[in-house]
Design goal:
Distance between the termini of chain A: 27 Å
Number of domains of chain A: 2
Oligomer: heterodimer
Radius of gyration of chain B: 31 Å
Strand order of the largest sheet of chain B: 2-1-3-4
Largest interface: A-B, 30 and 25 residues
Strand content of chain A: 25-35%
CATH architecture of the largest domain in chain A: 3-Layer(aba) Sandwich
Order of helices and strands of chain B: HHEHEHEEHHEEHHHHHHHHHHH
Strand content of chain B: 5-15%
Number of strands of chain B: 6
Shape of chain A: elongated
Number of helices of chain A: 10
Structural class of chain B: alpha/beta
CATH class of the largest domain in chain A: Alpha Beta
Radius of gyration of chain A: 24 Å
CATH superfamily of the largest domain in chain A: P-loop containing nucleotide triphosphate hydrolases
Structural class of chain A: alpha/beta
Order of helices and strands of chain A: EEEHEEEHHHEHEHEEHEHEEHEH
Amino acid sequence: MDSILKIEHVSKTYTGHKALDDVSIEIPRGSIYGLLGPNGAGKTTLIRVVNRMTIPDCGNVLFEGRPITADDIYQIGYMPEERGLYKKMKVGEQAVFFARLRGMSKSDATARLHEWFSRLNIEDWWEKKVEDLSKGMAQKVQFIATVVHEPKLLIFDEPFSGFDPINQDLLKNEILGLRDRGATVIFSTHNMESVEEICDDITLINKSQNILSGPVEEIRRKAGGNTFMVVYSGQTSDFINAINGKATLIGQAEGLIGGYTQQKIHIADNADVRPVIGALNDSVMLRSFQEIIPSMNDIFIRAVGGTL
Amino acid sequence: MNRIGLIVQREFTERARKKSFIITTLLTPLLMIALMAAPSLMMVLGKSDTKKIAVVDDTDAQFVGKALVSGETIEFQLLAPGTTLSQARSQFNDSDKAFGVLVIGKDIVDNPSDMQLILNDASSITIEESIQNQIQNIIRTARLSRYNIENMDQILADANVRVGIQTLKNTPQSDDEGSMEETSSVVSWIFGLILGMMLYFILIVYGQQVLQSVIDEKQTRVLDVMVTSCTPFELMMGKILGIALVAALQIVIWAVLVIGASMFVMPLLFGADSAVAASSAELGAIIGMVTNVKFVSGLFLELFLFIVGGFLFYASMYAAIGSAVDTPQDASQFNTIIMMPIVLAIIVMMNIMNDPNSGLVFWCSIIPFTSPVVMMARIPFGVPTWEVAVSLAVLYLSFLAMTWVASRIFRVGVFMHGKKPTWKDLGAWIKMK
């Protein structure tokens, strides 16, 4: 796998408290990578290790295949969870300051920032002072300041917190757009819906450990464990006979409007679904046959609770 | 532009544009001018208040009372011979009629303590001293005249001399024709003292700003973004230099305003003669020396380098403290410790006049904690160039080292919130990789 960032066996202990315990993660280039976990699990510490703000007790961080150096930091755009801007500065001036700090020329930065400002509909804020902005407005400015120099790797800590649904959507599309233009995005969040929508891969950290990693689709499928929802009309006894030996029932059958019945079944791992469908098709009238893929929310709760 | 330059520019413009900066920059000179004008004003206002003293003189022919000279502050009223103390007291019994009654005993010449001052009002040291001096002179003259020496007055006038020493600096370039630079230890000392004090105040005022600026960086949470955009060293250096520039700008504006005001406004306010009123010999010499272009320009570069270096070094210490704490309140325990060397430096500076080249003074002018203040006071006495060079080198290197230490503490301290660091912690943070 072509990975932009590789975290190998990283541990970090603060006084009397282990923030990261032997965490390893590999982040594929050009992906959107979700870093999930309950509060206090160690996500922010991990991000700070990547940013070289915190030095791990042991373990390595490899950026593009070699140990990360101080200069690599400028290839990373980081939007921290606790947003901070200089309050007394004007919005435009501040954005230009950060862009130049990360190596852009003044004219380049100004031109590119005006583009971004108009794309996010905040062009008329340029001359406003940061202290006059609302929280959501300041977040937009911070987002632009994070991405304007087009870093290879973007790290967003809870990017959607504080945004209304319309702006969340706007931001989501911008993040997808950044990935499509070649950036790799790491984002840490509790918002599982957004994970399903935009993450390609995730890692779930709980109690300082990596407890689950992989592509989102694969994780959801695995967590589903070959469970299917069947909707049919016909005799329940015929249904049970048909799947006998091939699948097991989960829970009770439910009656649906129009005489249909709905029943969850489980097919043994690695078993083929076709014989089941064939047998059912012969004995009842099949209306639908659909794999149940658990939501990331379910997976999150089950994984953290230890029942996955 | 490099990153330090950008941070300097940001710190500078943000501060220089603040309303509070503009207000203090314009108001402080007004206050300073008011302070400068206050003594002259007090002199002008104080003139009308002449104290009347009734004099009961029992000496022969009242020769003491007659010799007393009324001046701006005291007016003597000699009472008729034979007036008793109780008569005088009942006549001049409240402060409207007289400030007090002076009783001069019959044998004052042989018994100089035979003299009383009975006051209706609170006493005044200047009045007591003025009366004592006058009577002392009268008695001295009276005693001398007992010896019946011819031409006594002329002899006395002749013996009353004032000595002035002309101190010259012996440099290889100088010749005996008088082109040697003129120096004066008193003047040098006062000149150095003023500069040392100036530096002290600059350190207190602007050093605190550096401290506050670093703490603000943490409180506004900008630092998470900043430390991923530049190194802590660049951040610290940018902040220190930015605030130094603000300080320089403010001081230049103040200097221009105060000098301008004292040249044009003060004479208009008080008339040209009041400026001359304060013309003691030393003050005149200082003014002469400070305005001596050759002397000042010779020292200017050195003094400038020490003021700047001293500020930068102390500012970097303030930055280190700001890095270690979360609130200005937490900074107080460290603050006292920063102040100690400055206070020590001032004490040493006071003693420079005794011996500008003693071991203590020498070392204090090399060690960076005290060198800016002490060396500044030493330079007007003439210090070998190599000493100045070594002192400057040590000072600037210490500044760089301290900024580095500050950035170490900043990087580690920042991400360990909520814990007030101990000195042991600080040591560990500096060593931490």
